[in-house]
Amino acid sequence: MTGRTAFVLGGGGLLGAVEVGMLQALFERDIRPDLVLGTSVGALNGLVVASDPTLAVVDRLLDLWRSAGENNDVYADPAWRQVRRAVLSGTHLHSARPLRERLEQEFGDLDFADLAVEFQCVAASIERSTEHWFTTGPVVPAVMASAAVPGLFPTAQVGDEHFLDGGIVNSIPLGRAVKLGADRIFVLQVGRIDRPLKPPRRPWEVARVSFEIARRHRFLRELEELPDDVTAHILPAGGSTRDDSMLAYRDASLVADRIQAAYAGSVTYLDEHL
User: Fold this and answer.
1) Among 50, 169, 217, 260, which has the minimal tally of Cβ within 10 Å of its Cβ?
2) Distance (Å, whole) CA 183 – CA 178
3) What is the per-residue pLDDT across 219-229, written as a single tens digit (0 to 9) for each?
4) CA 211 to CA 260: how far, in whole Å?
5) Are 150 and 168 in contact (CB under 8 A)?
6) What backbone phi and psi angles, to 5 degrees, belong to 188?
């Protein structure tokens, strides 16, 4: 299968709000996907897009993200509750229930086959120590598995298998889009790859830099190995070094600003390159 347009949506917690601005710029130019691939928060955004790949979906996403900015019920636990949950569970700080309930309200028992365009999302299989692509069955368990950030959320169980966040194994799945026959790919990423890494100077920076290397290296290799007949457009997210902090994943204060900055940057990019 060739001649396909793919939207590839990467992960990044609440930084994923930037993908809404990018999507608005794309749909306003009547650029629509034949294939949507998502990792972590990119799987959440991607699912919404795959259910309605038109400009109308932007308002739906804006409502969801404005709600996240105002209420932040996914990461809103007070510190004492996070500590208590971490002690009792031994594995995570936040409950997955608010996110799961929100997805169930939006999508219920919707199946991959019911979506308007092909959608796939990736998670890390614990038992098989490899990436797993969800392509069939109910969409909500699949997206919950893709977004099961280690240490923040509990592992997700689908059938007899357990999963962690897809960003561990494929943070920005460019190569998957190529494998599935896409020759025009729009990469919606949260902005971290735009900024060079620096050697860590503090203990907590060691973890961040290590994770960022793990997030970026596969994407950069796949970008370098892109076939000559495939074009990849990496949309600019804007943002700043504030987005690189260890707590940026839960910082809802800049959701609206991030959406607008990514929209403006994507408009400029698309006008210059298409």
Assistant:
1) 217
2) 7
3) 999 999 999 99
4) 27
5) yes
6) -105, 105
